[in-house]
Amino acid sequence: MDQIIVTGSKNPLQGKVAIEGAKNAVLPLLAATILASEGTSTLTNVPILSDVFTMNNVVRGLDIDVTFDEEEKQVIIDASGQIGSQAPYKYVNQMRASIVVLGPILARNGYAKVSMPGGCTIGSRPIDLHLQGLEAMGARITQRSGYIEAHAEKLKGAHIFMDFPSVGATQNLMMAACLAEGKTVIENAAREPEIVDLAIFLNKMGAKVRGAGTETITIQGVEHLKGAVHQVVQDRIEAGTFMVAAAMTGGDVLIQDAIWEHNRPLLSKLQEMGVEVLEEDEGIRIRSTVTDLKPVSVTTLPHPGFPTDMQAQFTALMSVVKGQSTMVETVFENRFQHLEEMRRMNVHSEILRDTAIIHGGQALEGAQVMSTDLRASAALILAGLVAEGQTIVGKLSHLDRGYYKFHEKLAQLGARIERIKGEDSDV
Ligand code: EPU
């Protein structure tokens, strides 16, 4: 397996970096194309990521035509014929997000059989809210031999209150409700920008979704949906990762087309630390002098709170800021594994349940480390940028799920980083 080798340097990152379309937007958008019984759908600004290949295969597995033009970063989907009802283990096992096909398949075919997502390193991640919502809409659900089977000749609009604003459950229910009879109201819905992007696409397809981005989403069911053209929203987490990279190297980096509104919780913490954050015509510019930064306390929350998907990268930044910073992770119960790996790089931290205390300002040391999940892989690479000597990061399959040409983009900004083919002895 490949490895990334970063040689720490005192050189600040400098220049401009382009951001891809959002992984967490394109996956539900691909699922939404299943709903179109007429015409074709075209998604543009599609990131070239292993999770996108997996979702394309899930959709293809439903006898739907999917063409990914990687050069154009465009996917064309024709779901207008008779479509299948099953999402098998081999894909759902690779990517939990495949569960968002459950609602669309059920709404379109009246029956869906989707493998139950298995274990996950960052937390237990149940899908009870997805299933409860579909049941409220009249679906009969059984779970047997590792599969969820859902039946409903015609889903019925319902009033659903979600105990927690789950991103995936909100998406699944929104999509299912588009073809249900009558009106569905989802209360305490997730408000992430990717939910808004999905609603925009569904409405282009002929759906009647209102209120996305607020805690109450209302969907008036329609008879059928048709294909549409849509540009995937920019990846706020990729953008945020480069913001943190700039901040921790004392850099000056323009993150092109980054959207201020989507990154507000991160930007406000960077400002609190003393990082200069500038909104420019071309995007968001980050300027920092690491020596002057102050420690901060952060709590991850559903949007518009601080994103859990930026937690690992932000702890890398905390580790270079002199003093004691605190990170509370409230969304996932096991998302501090990167801190165990960073210990090998002389990052001093204490973890007590959902809280990590980081004693920042120690000199980081290069080491051989292993990615434990997608965002952890980025965080370890960021730590490597400022560590003394070489950091070798293994298990890059995690990185490839969510970052396109990460090392090349960092190299363009002046980092000493390369990706090599080789043995991953530690994994
Ligand atoms: N939860 C439940 N029951 C449910 C659904 C969720 O208890 O039925 C819990 C989960 O166990 C978790 C919390 O709710 O503790 C949040 O889960 P959510 O459903 O909101 O997350 P998700 O839809 O599974 C998406 C992103 C994640 C991101 C989370 C939170 C995609 C494909 N994935 O996951 O992205 O961390 O929202 O913002 O959109 C990543 O990109 O690195 C990543 C993990």
TrEMBL record:
Residues binding UDP-N-acetyl-alpha-D-glucosamine: R96, R125, P126, I127, D128, L129, D309, V331
Catalytic activity from the UniProt record: phosphoenolpyruvate + UDP-N-acetyl-alpha-D-glucosamine = UDP-N-acetyl-3-O-(1-carboxyvinyl)-alpha-D-glucosamine + phosphate
GO CC annotations on file: cytoplasm
Subcellular localization(s) per the UniProt record: Cytoplasm
Keyword terms: Cell cycle, Cell division, Cell shape, Cell wall biogenesis/degradation, Cytoplasm, Peptidoglycan synthesis, Pyruvate, Transferase
Top-level taxon of the source organism: Bacteria
GO MF, one annotated term: UDP-N-acetylglucosamine 1-carboxyvinyltransferase activity
Residues that, per the record, bind phosphoenolpyruvate: K23, N24
Active site location: C120 (proton donor)
Occurrences of domain Enolpyruvate transferase (ranges): 10-410
Known pathway: Cell wall biogenesis; peptidoglycan biosynthesis
GO biological process, one term: cell division
InterPro entries linked to this entry: Enolpyruvate_Tfrase_dom, Enolpyruvate_Tfrase_sf, MurA_subfamily, RNA3'P_cycl/enolpyr_Trfase_a/b, UDP_GlcNAc_COvinyl_MurA
Residue numbers carrying 2-(S-cysteinyl)pyruvic acid O-phosphothioketal: C120
EC code: 2.5.1.7
Function comment: Cell wall formation. Adds enolpyruvyl to UDP-N-acetylglucosamine.
NCBIfam families, per database record: murA, PRK09369.1
Similarity remark: Belongs to the EPSP synthase family. MurA subfamily.
Name of protein: UDP-N-acetylglucosamine 1-carboxyvinyltransferase
